[in-house]
Amino acid sequence: MAGKLSVVATPIGNLEDITLRALRILKEADVVACEDTRVTKKLLSHYDIHTPTVSFHANSGPKGFEKMLKLLEEGKHVALVSDAGTPGLFDPGAMLVTLVREQFGTDVKIETIAGASAVAAAIAIAGLKAPTFTFYGFLPLKKGRKTLLEEIAKSERASMLFESTHRIIKMLEAFETLVPLRRIGLYRELTKMYEEAIIGTPQEILAILRDDPQKQRGEFVVIVEAA
Questions:
Q1: Scanning 9, 19, 36, 152, which has its CA 20 to 30 A from the CA of 85?
Q2: Among 139, 137, 42, residue whose Cα is nearest residue 81
Q3: What pLDDT is stored for residue 33 in this prediction?
Q4: How would you label 195-212 residue by residue, b for 16+ Cβ within 10 Å and e otherwise?
Q5: What pLDDT shows up at residue 92?
Q6: SS (H, E, C) the chain
Q7: If we measure between CA atoms, which residue out of 75, 68, 73 comes closest to residue 34?
Q8: CA distances, 159 to each of 66, 125, 145 (Å)
Q9: Which superfamily is assigned to 4-113 in CATH?
Q10: Nearest residue to 31 via CA among 11, 6, 62
Q11: Domain residue spans in the chain?
Q12: Radius of gyration of the chain from Cα atoms?
């Protein structure tokens, strides 16, 4: 008998941002498949959950997928989590779901355990014109990055993307050239103690971040307002 795959959303920062259903599933599962077992074990320990964990991330390769498929073939209940938020965007979760559907069809139940999402959290407090938007995730580090930034600048829709502390200044400098008058929102450390929203033109935001380097730290959700 084939098993069950639960795709479980975990907190993006504040550990209280997890649903009762997610906690129940993490307890009931035979194994929790994690991007980083150290990160997930902190969450499990916080809620006194002792389900075994296995590593499954972008660098796991074919053997990682084989391991997951074997567990499901053995009838195991696998709870899939990412380090933060909902799996399937920037981890191998989407490919795993595809492979499970191809190999097992309806024999393996795949369920979504909805919860925290940085995308939804940022839109909720955006304060910008964003009736529709295009989500870019993390832009490539080199090849194709300039092309996508130019695409965002030309778009009449709002654009949302993620950026790290190491590249936020360079991104804003690019937007200062491409869309100098367009408002941009930076949403930093969402749901954490130092959560902050900074909204303004690229030049205005650059001045704020350069004046206080501490504001350059953390993970950012970036929204470029609709034209």
A1: 152
A2: 42
A3: 96
A4: eebebebbeebbeebeee
A5: 81
A6: CCCEEEEECECCCCCCCCCHHHHHHHHHCCEEEECCHHHHHHHHHHCCCCCCEEECCCCCHHHHHHHHHHHHHCCCEEEECCCCECCCCCCCHHHHHHHHHHHHHHHCEEEEECCCCHHHHHHHCCCCCCCCEEEEEECCCCCCHHHHHHHHHHCCCEEEEEECCCCHHHHHHHHHHHCCCCCEEEEECCCCCCCEEEEECHHHHHHHHHHCHHHHCCCEEEEECCC
A7: 68
A8: 36, 15, 14
A9: Tetrapyrrole methylase, N-terminal domain (3.40.1010.10)
A10: 6
A11: 4-113, 118-224
A12: 19
Q: How many residues appear in the chain?
A: 227
Q: What distance in Å separates the CA atoms of residue 167 and residue 183, rounded to the nearest whole number?
A: 19
Task: State the Cα–Cα distance between residues 157 and 224, nearest whole angstrom.
Answer: 9
**Fold of the domain spanning 118-224:** 3.30.950
What pairing do the DSSP bridges indicate for beta strands 158-163 and 133-138?
A: parallel
pLDDT, the chain, mean: 94
| Residue burial 30-52, b: 16+ Cβ < 10 Å; e: rest | ebbbbbebeebeebbeeeebebe
Q: Which residues of the chain have pLDDT under 70?
A: 1, 90
Residue type, 6: S
- In the numeric block, which tokens belong to residue 107? 């024999």
Pairwise CA distance, residues 224 & 158, whole Å:
6
